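User: tokens in, sequence out, please.
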């Protein structure tokens, strides 16, 4: 039993070491520890990224209470905007939105250009409504080759978003 508790504690430490906390005026959230927080221009939004990389996180909060149907419509609209811009294909392909209660996410694959190199990239787009009727939305983007590292963080980041 002691070994199990130590193993669990070690896993918890490892998982939490991958994230650090943003604590703003309107909300707090966790973000990948290797990302740099960007200057916050609005209290409602937070961005973090890796300099000269495709890695990017955006989190924003509003006072919008959406139903599950509205969340699905939001995701369908975001999926369409991910795949085309002004009627032109963007090169991104988005999977079907996954709706769980008052949370919707979808995964998209595309390419970002960094130093004239096309980098295969994945992004998870999300939107959810908290029990106190605050709506969070944003995306986590990273190199496709790092998906095993970042995919588990998507749910942790969503769970960490707390309105004040």
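Assistant: Sequence out:
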């Amino acid at each position: 039993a002691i070994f199990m508790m130590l193993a669990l504690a070690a896993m918890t430490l490892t998982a939490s070491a991958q994230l650090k906390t943003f604590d703003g005026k309107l909300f707090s959230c966790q973000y990948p520890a290797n990302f740099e927080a960007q200057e916050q221009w609005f209290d409602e939004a937070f961005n973090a990224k890796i300099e000269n990389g495709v890695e990017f996180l955006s989190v924003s909060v509003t006072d919008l209470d959406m139903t599950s149907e509205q969340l699905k419509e939001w995701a369908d609209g975001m999926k369409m905007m991910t795949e085309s811009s002004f009627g032109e294909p963007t090169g991104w392909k988005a999977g079907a939105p996954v709706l769980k209660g008052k949370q919707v996410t979808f995964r998209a694959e595309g390419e970002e250009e960094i130093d004239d190199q096309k980098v295969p990239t994945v992004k998870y787009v999300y939107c959810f409504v908290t029990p106190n009727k605050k709506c969070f939305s944003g995306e986590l983007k990273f190199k496709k080759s790092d998906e095993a590292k970042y995919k588990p963080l998507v749910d942790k980041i969503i769970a960490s978003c707390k309105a004040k």
